Every structure is written in C-alpha cells, then in structure tokens.
Amino acid sequence: MAVTFEEMKEVVKLDPFLKLFDFRVVSSRIGEVVLECDLRDHLLRIGGTMNGGAIMSLLDAAGGLCILTKEDVLNQVTSSLSINFLRPISKGPVRTRGKLIKGGRNLAYTQIEVMDGDGKLAASAMGTWFLFR
C-alpha cells in the first residue's frame, strides 16, 4: 500500500533526522512529493545562505519520500545522489519537489529540484534508491 498524504506528514514529523529541519509536506501524490521549510538560523552557513548539507538533506528527503508513494514499497535507502548547486539560497521558504522517474523491482530513480523563496531554481539532483518491498 502506498503512503498517503497524511501518513507522509507523520513520517516527516516522527523521523529523528528529518524533524531537525522542520520540513513540511505541502503535497503528496503517486510519484511526487513537495516539501517546504523556512530558512531558519540552524540551516544557514556563515554569510546568511543555506548550508549545502541542509540543501542535500532536503533533496535526499524529497527523493526518498516520493518513492514511498509507489504501491508496495515499504522503505527505501539512497544508493546515489548527484547534485548540482545552481545559486545560493538566502530567502525562504525553500521548496523541494521530488518526482519518481522510474521505479523498478529493486531500484527507483528520481529527479529533485530545490527552489528559493522567489521560486528560482537553486539546486537539482538525480538520485537512485534501493527499495524494500
């Protein structure tokens, strides 16, 4: 059974790592998840821009969560994540969209984008996840 929108919100709330970022699930449908977070001090680096590790965590979370919307996937782990940082993020809220590109028997492939508070593309990634069924 695929994870519903309400269940997705609970996963983000209860996950010990994800809750540090205060991500919100904005939308969830089969093959796609949108997350959002405010640009808070603990996500910033010196100079007032979002820390690259925080951006990577958003990308990773959105990629993994969009896979959970696929029927019969119980869990997933990241196998690879290739990220392109395009511009610094200094304005929130930060929005991330993960989209399932292809789901196979053991692996799933995603495309993920991060937009700054002005809606400008700030980072993009392609990822591969190992699936637990």
Task: Describe this protein's structure.
The protein has a 6-stranded antiparallel sheet with strand order 1-2-4-5-6-3, covered by helices on one side. Strand 4 and strand 5 form a beta hairpin. It has 2 helices and 6 strands, in the order H-E-E-H-E-E-E-E.
Give me some keywords for this one:
single chain, 133 residues, alpha+beta, globular
Q: Report the span from N to C terminus.
A: 10 Å
Count of beta strands: 6
Q: Average pLDDT, to the nearest integer?
A: 94
Strand residue content: 35-45%
Instruction: Please indicate the count of domains.
Output: 1
Strand order of the largest sheet: 1-2-4-5-6-3
Helix content: 10-25%
CATH class: Alpha Beta
Secondary-structure content class: alpha+beta
Global Rg: 14 Å
Strand/helix succession:
HEEHEEEE
According to CATH, the fold-level topology is Thiol Ester Dehydrase, Chain A
Largest sheet: 6 strands, antiparallel
Q: Can you tell me the CATH superfamily?
A: Hotdog Thioesterase
| Tally of alpha and pi helices | 2
The CATH architecture is Roll
Which SSEs are present, and which pair or pack?
Blueprint: H1 5-14, E1 24-29, E2 32-37, H2 52-67, E3 75-85, E4 94-103, E5 107-115, E6 121-132
